Amino acid sequence: MVPLTWDQIGERLYETGVDHGVLYLPDVAGVYNTGFAWNGLTTVTETPSGAEASPQYADNIKYLNLISAEEFGCTIEAFTYPEEFAECDGTALPEPGVAVGQQGRKIFGLSFRTRVGNDVEGTEFGYKLHLVYGCQAAPSEKAYATINDSPEALAFSWEVTTTPVPVTDYKPTSLIVIDSTVVDPADLASLEALLYGQAAVEPALPTPDAVITLFAGP
User: Fold this and answer.
1) What distances in angstroms separate CA 192 from CA 18, 81, 179, one per listed residue?
2) 149 secondary structure, DSSP code
């Protein structure tokens, strides 16, 4: 048996950064077949909840633990957002430049990329793609402040809850993560062509089943 070792060269991994944000809007069938680049994305904070233990007692002992359903949420922070996100933020645009607030909030999908680094290649070692489904943004606070000698850009922030989508042979999920340092590069390129679009093909967010099938190989 090989003894355990720690902190070997090339194995000191870490994650950092966020980029390549994309907003996806569903059609009437719930298919995320239209994507828009999300510029100015600064932070995505993943906030899973649930999975709490509910102890059950019998025969004067702790008999078992029942675990509550796990839910996925996140907080999106950005300096700006795609115009198409307005309907996801409860804003209607009846005319160009005219915004009507307090409207219904449309479901959306999201993808973004985080860097995976190590002690040899730094942040060029790889990255992870995060695919989020069934998102719905809650109303958010916006603080407009006077310009002074220490100006700061207004940062938008949205609390997002999700509704899981089906996955064959697994429980429904709102999150899929793909690690570029593990998966086949050709399969990863095929997925990115779907996510970001290519000539004559609109960017789209494939279902979890489609993502899994893509990496399943022949």
Assistant:
1) 16, 21, 12
2) S
pLDDT tens per residue, range 20-36 = 999 999 998 889 999 99
Dist. CA 165–CA 175, nearest whole Å: 9
- Mapped onto helix, strand or coil, the DSSP state of residue 155 is coil
Q: Residues 125-154: pLDDT tens digits?
A: 999 999 999 999 998 878 788 888 888 888
Give the residue, 107 or 143, on which the prediction is more confident: 107
Strands (E), the chain: 14-26, 32-38, 41-46, 49-50, 53-58, 61-67, 70-71, 73-78, 92-95, 98-100, 108-118, 122-137, 156-162, 165-167, 170-173, 175-179
Radius of gyration, alpha carbons of the chain: 21
